[in-house]
Design a protein that fits this description.
Length: about 150
């Protein structure tokens, strides 16, 4: 399966003052927020509204490659890389769009893993171990991604 065929979510936004330090350069944590917004867009598109309360991140890795600045438009893209029995591996990129005469630039890239914990987390139950992804979720995301 090519990257273009994998389930992908995209979030377009502008770096706001709250996203930056006093010099107007984005906080590294802003990448996480942009990436999760792209993931949420994908889940909404696929009708998986119950995903987030049941899929905590258990691993997160990012390379911060270039600064984003206050007022700059940014595009975050998340792509499903692998579906396991109870985990999913995601890859992401965050791009800074053309700004102040500078070309579009890859600001951050990385990957993270989510684990399905089942309905227990949403209900507040104590049993929060990993459980298999619901079959309808795997189907909605494209069973061909299962590895």
């Amino acid at each position: 399966m090519t990257d273009e065929q994998r389930p992908t979510g995209t979030f377009r936004t502008r770096v706001e003052w709250v996203d930056t330090d006093a010099s107007g350069i984005y906080h590294n944590s802003t990448v996480t927020r942009f990436v999760e917004a792209a993931e949420a867009a994908l889940m909404r598109e696929r009708g998986l509204d119950g995903y987030f309360p049941n899929a905590p991140r258990v691993r997160y890795e990012a390379d911060f490659l270039a600064p984003l600045r206050f007022g700059q438009e940014a595009t975050a893209t998340v792509r499903l890389a692998r579906v396991g029995t109870a985990s999913m591996t995601w890859e992401f990129e965050v791009w800074g769009e053309t700004f102040a005469g500078q070309p579009r630039v890859l600001a951050a890239r990385g990957s993270y893993v989510t684990v399905h914990t089942g309905a227990g987390v949403a209900r507040g139950d104590e049993a929060r171990g990993a459980t298999p992804w619901p079959a309808e979720w795997v189907t909605a995301l494209g069973a061909e991604c299962r590895m």
